[in-house]
Design brief:
Radius of gyration: 20 Å
Structural class: alpha/beta
CATH superfamily of the largest domain: HUPs
Number of domains: 2
Helix content: 40-55%
Low-confidence stretches: none
Order of helices and strands: HEHEHEHHEEEHEHEHEEHHHHE
Number of strands: 11
CATH architecture of the largest domain: 3-Layer(aba) Sandwich
Number of helices: 12
CATH class of the largest domain: Alpha Beta
CATH topology of the largest domain: Rossmann fold
Strand content: 15-25%
Mean pLDDT: 93
Shape: elongated
Distance between the termini: 17 Å
């Protein structure tokens, strides 16, 4: 973990607990090659060190394949799923970046005839996309306020199953949220533009909507996003410098404006000192915070 992960996890824990809720620990290990048990164990140790304990789980996505298949087949039966044969290079050549720098799929394979689709499927594997309508999706975010997306223009038809047969993040998390009783999702603001796709999937699959809270990103002094690969503000380094988890959390809570003075704190201390309204008010509208 790094300071950004810690901050996001702390906000999720506080928002849940301040509402009398429960924390679900889900290991999003759809990428089997990159998901190693030693990394998962280290992550859980980090949570425990910081007092960010969970109430349910851990739940693993790798054992949820059949649930994703069921949802995929339900979407296919609705007629909005089609095979896509575009490579990554094709997508970059044909798509235009939008405000979030996300490439929007132009619908190249949506217009293929059934005969052409069958011919191509006989030759090579396909990903599967969900077509989206030209309609607005309004996300009322607890931190970022109201954001309005046009599904067709801002999101585009999106992948729900990959070329290798694995299921995409968007589909998996929506299915898991419903199965695990998740009704509040707290994560970094860089994932705000995933919300309209997930809200659309909730609608098609007949699931209840969840509440979203997208926290500001912690960035380096030069504006760069903190990244695991660069060891930016890594938790191990922070613990070495500040000597105790309470001091690490106190520094992050003060830096981000959760508390007014830098002092050692644990999550339970913050729970006693804050209300939900205070927490949301102090972070409202912020998209980035410099880590020093």
């Amino acid at each position: 973990m790094h300071a950004g992960n810690v901050f996001s996890a702390l906000c999720a824990w506080l928002i849940a607990k301040l509402q009398g809720g429960r924390i679900v620990l889900r290991i999003e290990d759809l990428d089997a090659q990159r998901s190693k048990q030693e990394h998962i164990d280290a992550l859980m140790r980090d949570f425990e060190t910081l007092g960010l304990t969970w109430d349910e789980g851990p739940f693993y996505q790798q054992v949820r394949h059949e649930a994703y298949v069921e949802a995929f087949e339900q979407l296919k039966s609705g007629g909005g799923v089609y095979p896509c044969f575009c490579t990554r290079a094709d997508l970059h050549a044909a798509s235009a970046p939008h405000a979030s720098d996300k490439l929007v799929y132009p619908g190249t394979c949506r217009s293929l005839s059934e005969r052409d689709r069958e011919s191509l499927l006989a030759e090579k594997p396909a990903a599967y996309r969900l077509s989206v309508p030209d309609e607005l999706c309004v996300i009322e975010d607890q931190f970022q306020g109201i954001s309005t997306f046009n599904l067709a223009n801002d999101c585009g038809d999106f992948v729900i199953r990959r070329f290798d047969g694995s299921f995409a993040y968007q589909l998996a998390v929506v299915v898991d949220d419903a199965a695990q009783g998740v009704n509040s999702v707290v994560r970094g603001v860089d994932l705000l533009d995933s919300s309209p796709q997930q809200r659309y999937l909730q609608k098609l699959l007949g699931f209840d909507e969840v509440a979203y809270a997208h926290v500001p990103l912690i960035v380096a002094p030069d504006g760069r996003r903190l990244a695991k690969r660069n060891q930016d503000a890594a938790l191990d380094a922070l613990l070495s410098h500040y000597k105790a988890p309470e001091a690490v959390l106190g520094h992050i809570a003060y830096l981000t404006g959760i508390i007014d003075a830098e002092e050692p704190v644990m999550p339970q201390d913050l729970l006693k000192a804050l209300t939900l309204e205070t927490l949301l008010g102090r972070l409202h509208g912020k998209t980035s915070i410099v880590f020093e």
